[in-house]
Amino acid sequence: MSLREQLNEDLKSAMRAKDQARLSVIRSIKAGILAQETRSERTTLDDEGILQVIVKEIKERKDANSEFEKAGRQDLVEKNLKEIEILSSYLPEPLSEDELAQLIDAAITACGATSPKDMGKVMAIVNPQIRGRADGRHVADLVKARLSR
């Protein structure tokens, strides 16, 4: 079952169960997909494109959480954390630290990177492999640490 079909089925289930939190999150994902497809001259997103939309939704909520915490709005922080949990259920299994290290080492070897100046080359190889499975900032920190040795 494709991710789009899964979202449609989950939307129906959330409607039947009157699960407002899940319903709201799925509608948000579907709106993001529609917006992306409209921006891309009416192309239909595949599972990879839908994953990018979901990752973007998670990132937006994490960024908003830091602002809510500064403002002392714990109720909104908790709401966002629940939404992040629902969104994360659509992402593939996250990579372990060992798997990330192996991917980074393979990318460094493949492009012949020797210094932090080559970080862009390494990230260009690693990013497509980690999309939706690891945080880009964390991976960038790991790459920088490996290249600084």
Automatic annotation (TrEMBL):
InterPro entries, per the entry: Asn/Gln_tRNA_amidoTrase-B-like, GatB_Yqey_C_2, YqeY/Aim41, YqeY/Aim41_N
A single GO molecular function term of this UniProt record: carbon-nitrogen ligase activity, with glutamine as amido-N-donor
PANTHER family referenced in this protein's UniProt entry, alphabetically: ALTERED INHERITANCE OF MITOCHONDRIA PROTEIN 41, MITOCHONDRIAL (PTHR28055:SF1)
Protein name, per record: GatB/YqeY domain-containing protein
